[in-house]
Request: fold
Amino acid sequence: GSLDTTFGAGGWVSTDLMGDDEAAAIAIQPDGKILLVCTTVMDFALVRYHSNGELDNTFGTDGWVRTDILGGDDKANALAIQSDGRIVVVGKAMNSDYNYDFALVRYQENGDLDLGFGENGKVTTDLTNQHDMARGIALQPDGKIIVVGPVKRIGFFHDFAVARYANDGNLDTLFGAGGWVFTDFYVNHDFANAVILQPDGRIIVAGAA
Reply:
């Protein structure tokens, strides 16, 4: 548990993106580089470091990229690295009705948006016409993308939601009802926060109910 003093300055790194930054999730590339997904000034942000904690200036601009989804309040919550090196970040994006939608963004290995994914690299999904907030992601071996999070359905109550997307960002309509599944436990606040795939392909979602 001792700090690794070979990393950063005395074992830690601090990066100021735009003054109001919140890191949410981390992943390690096969080459050892570190990806950190954040929210900065109400937009998605993705930062890449070398294994020693230095910013990787070959990624985005000076080591990081900022992405606005729908022009409103966005929050990035999770990320996954595909087998081809592309990076998928998920979270929530405020729409024109001031409700949140599931939001996905896919980046190339160098931090550029993957323009072949969704609309210019971005996907938003309004599941309930209320607040839909993606918090977890898992990648199937066939390239399909599983996204989970809480959705607001009845009054102030929330349910688990699981949505599946094809590799191009379109909803997989063969999954659930039109591409998603809702689960209500106690007609109360059910928040899905994380997801993992079993070797047999079944999906485990964890959260609070």
Q: What stands out?
A: The chain is about 0% helix and 45% strand. The radius of gyration is 17 Å. The mean pLDDT is 96. Residues 162 and 181 are 5 Å apart (CA to CA).
